[in-house]
From TrEMBL:
Entries under InterPro entries matching the protein: DNA/RNA_pol_sf, RT_dom
A matching Pfam family: RVT_1
Organism: Cuscuta campestris
The name this protein goes by in its record: Reverse transcriptase domain-containing protein
Residue ranges of every copy of the Reverse transcriptase domain listed in the record: 64-307
Signal peptide limits: none
Source lineage: Eukaryota, Viridiplantae, Streptophyta, Embryophyta, Tracheophyta
């Protein structure tokens, strides 16, 4: 990860500055009223309407976490519920799980997001646009169309474009890998602690037929619906980008004819991936080896059936 940009001292200090009550209020009021409540049953609309009554204690709970993390275990409870992926679901794979969080936890996660979003453009390559301030996903879409242009023409040089699907992307991420990536990018220890405490301490119950069942803790993964999850996934994909570029320099790899000048190997669309190269065995072997090492390090496996 040190083959690209890392955080400066000034950026590190900005990440761990003390939060203030106004920032806590702004974070809470940025949460839409329509967002589902967590196990405590209170959505953001309740807190907004009763802010004069609950604002002081809510602010204290949030700021106490950033001092010592002592209160988060009580509020980091998560309710898992299934929502359909298709119009008429008939089997388990037709559903996907989402996580419903207590509103106070969402405020903590939002505050971390505001800080993290400020530094992502500095450390994340331009091949990623989703969730990064000042970038448009449309740029990557247009670039893909340009790369694919003329593939049906006769006599063009061999070239390869692969659409790579990551299996159970958020659910499979290794917490150890996230910690290592944050450390290698020079994130300050206190900020890493906040992040890791948020993603590694939740307790889960399952919502079935309007009732809550079970109680267990997770061992890996990022939760769908957590504001911080997509931003952390951006950093994981940045790790993949840098791994591909290092491998391209060390091994026999030939760039896609239209991407050689810009040294483009991959384009990332959230948790979807496009990889391009010259269509030769050495280049494709290089890419596959990087993807295997990526799986071993992060827990993110390529779904060969959908790729």
């Amino acid at each position: 990860m040190r083959s690209g940009n890392t955080l400066s001292i000034e950026q590190q200090l900005e990440l761990i500055k003390d939060f203030n009550p106004e920032q806590v209020k702004n974070a809470l009021f940025s949460i839409p009223n329509s967002k589902s409540p967590g196990p405590d049953g209170f959505n953001s609309g309740f807190f907004k309407k009763k802010w004069n009554t609950v604002g002081v204690i809510t602010t204290r709970v949030v700021l106490d976490f950033f001092k010592d993390g002592a209160t988060l275990k009580q509020i980091n409870a998560t309710c898992l519920t299934l929502i359909p992926k298709v119009e008429n679901p008939s089997k388990p794979t037709d559903y996907r799980p989402i996580s419903c969080f207590n509103t106070v936890y969402k405020v903590i996660s939002k505050l971390l997001c505001f800080r993290l979003k400020a530094v992502l453009p500095h450390i994340v390559d331009l091949n990623q646009a989703a969730f990064i301030k000042g970038r448009e996903l449309l740029h990557n879409i247009l670039l893909c169309k340009e790369i694919a242009k003329g593939y049906k023409r006769k006599g063009i040089s061999p070239r390869c474009m692969m659409k790579v699907d990551i299996q159970n992307a958020y659910n499979s991420v290794s917490w150890k890998a996230i910690r290592g990536i944050l450390h290698s990018l020079n994130f300050p220890g206190k900020f890493i602690y906040w992040i890791m405490f948020c993603i590694s301490t939740p307790s889960y119950t399952i919502h079935i037929n309007d009732e809550l069942h079970g109680y267990f803790r997770g061992g890996k993964g990022l939760r769908q619906g957590d504001p911080i999850s997509p931003l952390l996934f951006v950093l994981i994909m940045e790790y993949l980008t840098r791994s591909l570029r290092v491998a391209a320099l060390k091994y026999k790899f030939s760039y896609h004819p239209m991407c050689a000048n810009l040294k483009i190997i991959n384009l990332t669309f959230a948790d979807d991936l496009i990889v391009v190269c010259k269509a030769d065995n050495e280049s494709i072997k290089c890419i596959m080896e990087v993807l295997e090492r990526f799986y071993a390090t992060t827990g993110l496996k390529i779904n060969r059936n959908k790729s």
